[in-house]
Amino acid sequence: MQNTINLRNKPSKNKEQGRPIIPPKLPVPDREEKKQVEAPKPPAPPKNTGRALLDDISWSGPMHSHEPDMKFVIGSSLVMGAIAVLFLLFQRSVVTTIFFALLGLMLFAQSRKRPEEGRFEVSLAGIKVNNEFHLMKDVKSFWLEYQPNGIKELSLQLKKWYSPYLKIPIGEQNPLHIRTLLVQFIPEEEHEDTVIEIVQRKLGL
After folding, report:
1. Which of 15, 97, 178, 180 would disulfide-bridge 88, Cβ 3.0–4.6 Å?
2. 3-state secondary structure string, 61-122?
3. Is 129 left (phi over 0), alpha (psi -120 to 50) or beta?
4. What are the respective helix, strand and coil percentages of the chain, to the nearest 5?
């Protein structure tokens, strides 16, 4: 075929065929175009106000601790009975004799009686015992007495002259949680039991 063209033997029209071909330089993009889109920064955490944010603590339990010392209870009842006998023998006072005899029986009976159940709540607003509410500003100080196998009690010193102290059994509540909440608003001071409170606790009253 005479019309067939052999491309391999076709002479090049480029006069500079012997020189290496240098590829053209590509345009370098501007540095400003290389800026990457920064990821949005997370919101800043809230400022620490210095107060622990805790939920309200509420529980149910007896209105007062009830762990009477039966030896003390029986001894006190016998003492009341002995006083009644002495008044009967030496004073011939029937009324006084009956009074001390009944007092001895009442002490024994009350020590066997379980206290009523109550509802307690400690919150940022105050302390609630059943329907009675005490604001934080009305409490002078507090103290937590916690013995794993003994007394577990929250003591509040109120700013009321006629009711200075309020004792609240905390049962199985965590005393650290209650303290963390109260210490933000109320001074923590140790409360020592009076002689009357010690006798009441031993009698289970």
Report:
1. 97
2. EECCCCCCCHHHHHHHHHHHHHHHHHHHHHHCCHHHHHHHHHHHHHHHHHHHCCCCEEEEEE
3. beta
4. 35, 20, 45
Contacts of 181 (CB under 8 A, 6+ apart): 52, 54, 57, 122, 123, 124
Structure tokens at 135: 């604001």
Tell me which fold the domain 57-203 belongs to.
PH-domain like (2.30.29)
Q: What pLDDT digit, counting tens, does each position of 18-49 carry?
A: 555 565 555 555 554 444 545 555 445 445 44
Do 203 and 107 contact (CB within 8 A), yes or no?
yes
What amino acid is encoded at 130 in this protein? N
Prediction pTM value = 0.59
Measure the CA–CA gap between 172 and 151, rounded to whole angstroms.
Answer: 11
C-alpha to C-alpha distance for 131 and 38, rounded to whole angstroms: 57
Lookup: tokens for 41: 């920064």
